[in-house]
């Protein structure tokens, strides 16, 4: 495999979206029915445009998931199942980060990066999730691909790329995972492992109730090589106001490779979602880009339609589809967190 690797942007053509079906032995047990409804709506939306590969814990889970999806009239010709062990369903952080190697004859190979998954810094048991990429690779579902084991803690939700060599991430998360490393040392590792030319850091921004230590995919996302969509906050009485205002100022100060400011698309701030006196981490920035559409997390909030309008402006050539995600934020994640895209040609 050539060393001419690149990290495709999420908006580039995809083979499939990889997810894992929630079960009674995952953290979803207490609200499994609500969460399953979100998964069904998610799969239904994705299969309008492309394939979905669903990790299942065993044959019984597959049979159940297949029946639920079929009864919802999901296009089952675009659904595949893979029996594999997993601890939980946050595939953004446990699934493969895929690099593409381009050849002169326009054929391409792929490198599946298998970073260490530590349960977000040791917060949760993650031994099976840490082996997920290895287990998937062993099942032969990937084409023209090599798996690269990397002894470096990193989650897919912590990184954003424009597909042209610029990486966006947060210092809070990377510093928490690697407290002994300097920013310069981390930049070298990120650039080398992810085939990037530069790293843009955000020092501000967080969501209350977030277990990830400020993953970038809850805060700011590339919409194009010169555009960033971000979670804003205009409520001066909210605890998030100061840090998200500071993050907005950081984003305004960033420059493209050509030295131009990014086009910025601020997402509205949803009203607080409270669950038994605990605030949940609702963010519209946790959207998923698929072939021809953007799937937006909706929270049954008055700002849902406004957020959809912002995404429509940022992605004018894609359909914006709202997926109810209030059940997901009960476990402090949302739509992007439970999915991982696989670039075109991988499966």
Automatic annotation (TrEMBL):
<keyword id="KW-0378">Hydrolase</keyword>
<dbReference type="GO" id="GO:0009446">
    <property type="term" value="P:putrescine biosynthetic process"/>
</dbReference>
<dbReference type="GO" id="GO:0004668">
    <property type="term" value="F:protein-arginine deiminase activity"/>
</dbReference>
<dbReference type="InterPro" id="IPR007466">
    <property type="entry name" value="Peptidyl-Arg-deiminase_porph"/>
</dbReference>
<dbReference type="GO" id="GO:0047632">
    <property type="term" value="F:agmatine deiminase activity"/>
</dbReference>
<dbReference type="Pfam" id="PF04371">
    <property type="entry name" value="PAD_porph"/>
</dbReference>
<protein>
    <submittedName>
        <fullName>Agmatine deiminase family protein</fullName>
    </submittedName>
</protein>
């Amino acid at each position: 495999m050539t060393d001419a690797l690149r990290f495709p942007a999420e908006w580039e053509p995809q083979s499939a979206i990889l997810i894992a079906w929630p079960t009674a032995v995952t953290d979803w047990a207490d609200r499994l029915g609500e969460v399953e409804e979100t998964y069904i709506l998610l799969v239904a939306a994705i299969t309008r445009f492309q394939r979905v590969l669903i990790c299942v814990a065993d044959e019984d889970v597959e049979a159940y998931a297949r029946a639920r999806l079929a009864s919802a009239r999901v296009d089952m010709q675009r659904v595949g199942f893979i029996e594999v062990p997993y601890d939980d369903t946050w595939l953004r952080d446990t699934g493969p980060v895929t690099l593409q190697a381009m050849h002169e004859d326009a054929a391409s190979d792929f490198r599946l990066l298998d970073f260490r998954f530590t349960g977000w810094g040791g917060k949760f048991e993650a031994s099976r999730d840490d082996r997920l990429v290895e287990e998937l690779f062993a099942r032969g579902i990937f084409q023209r691909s090599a798996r690269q084991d990397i002894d470096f803690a990193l989650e897919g939700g912590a990184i954003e790329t424009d597909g042209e060599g610029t990486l966006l991430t947060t210092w809070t998360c990377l510093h928490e995972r690697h407290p002994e490393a300097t920013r310069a040392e981390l930049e070298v590792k990120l650039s080398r492992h992810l085939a990037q030319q530069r790293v843009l850091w955000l020092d501000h921004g967080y969501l209350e109730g977030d277990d990830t230590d400020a993953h970038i995919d809850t805060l700011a996302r590339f919409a194009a090589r010169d555009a960033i969509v971000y979670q804003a906050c205009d409520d001066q009485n909210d605890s998030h106001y100061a840090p998200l205002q500071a993050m907005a100022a950081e984003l305004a100060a960033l420059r493209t490779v050509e030295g131009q400011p990014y086009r910025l698309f601020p997402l509205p701030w949803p009203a607080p979602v409270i669950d038994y006196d605990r605030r949940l981490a609702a963010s519209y920035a946790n959207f998923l880009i698929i072939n021809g559409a953007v799937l937006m997390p909706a929270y049954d909030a008055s700002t849902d339609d406004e957020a959809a309008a912002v995404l429509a402006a940022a992605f004018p050539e894609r359909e914006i589809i709202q997926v109810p995600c209030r059940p997901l934020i009960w476990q402090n994640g949302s739509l992007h967190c439970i999915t991982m895209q696989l670039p075109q040609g991988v499966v």
